[in-house]
Amino acid sequence: METALIIGGTRFIGRHAVEEFLDHGYEVTVFNRGNHDNPFESDDRVAHVQGDRTDDAELAGAAREVEPDVVVDCVAYYPRDVRTACRIFDDVDAYVYISSGSAYGAEVMPKREDETPLCDCTAEQAKDDSHESYGPRKAEGDRAVFAAAEDGVNAMAVRPCIVYGPHDYTERLDFWIDRVRNDDRVVVPGDGTNVWHRAYVEDVASALRVVAEAGDPGEAYNVGDRRMVTLEEMVELIADALDTEVEVVHASERELSIGDLSLDDYVLYRDYPHVLDTNKLAALGWESTPVDEAMQAAVDDHLDSDRDGSEHDPGRENEERVLGVLDTL
What we know:
Blueprint: E1 3-7, H1 13-23, E2 27-32, E3 46-50, H2 56-66, E4 70-73, H3 79-88, E5 94-98, H4 123-127, H5 134-150, E6 155-160, E7 162-164, H6 172-182, E8 185-189, E9 198-200, H7 201-214, E10 220-223, H8 231-242, E11 247-251, H9 253-256, H10 279-282, H11 291-303, H12 316-328
Parallel strand pairs: 1-2, 1-4, 2-3, 4-5, 5-6, 6-10, 7-9, 8-11
Helix pairs in contact: 1-7, 3-5, 6-8, 8-11
């Protein structure tokens, strides 16, 4: 039986990755600091090694203790993290780094792994922890993977777009589910045709395994829903999953300004379409979950949780002002 070491492994993508590898017959160990509740604490199939992945000695100790065949790195947020991991795990069958669609440095459609340029990353950005440096840091991590592969390390990268599904602590989708659940009229910024490619979390987890088993060292693989939906279609999918009906009300930048709102106040809105080409991953045998099934799972999990996405709420009272004026037009 092969052994998988999941660096992270208890919150969102990592949690689903653990389940994916278990379902496919792997022995699984998670390595993390133990700062979050461990959903596998009572599961004797999952071992836990506690440590800080930014401490080279502790990461190397985990490598010696586990002797993994596959390593999935869920929490490599800095290029140094990736370079260190590639050095420590230089003899594994597969080291899979979770990168991001944000690593792309050009607004083109679609974004292809072997064509679309990556973000540049300055020395300052490589150490910065701000949202603005996230894409450059992930891109530099990709370059670390490519360099390690040239030195013979079986290192690969997976680039998800916006990830959604059960246990999503970002609560981005939860905001929209909460809106549809509680309001008959839902304000959708723009004309509703905005596209920001999303990836169902279980499909990301399966992509990690497929790439570990069949990917080529030095390669990156995009992952996202094979059927993309617009923002308005996403709202309609949520309504279907809740077995309810809502009226979608489009609001332009000018109309939103009536309520002191802007397009960018809405989570999952993006002006230029963000679309990833997933054919390279599909060629390895990966398949995605139908979006209606994925949304149903996300909605069911939302209903079982206490998440409401309120941190992303632009303010219902502000929207009511917009709706009131639109009703008079």
